[in-house]
Amino acid sequence: MLADRWLEDKGNDGWEAARAACARALETRSNAEGARASFITAAEKSNIRVKADV
Question: Torsion angle of alpha carbons 54, 41, 46, 18, nearest 10°?
Answer without folding.
Answer: -100
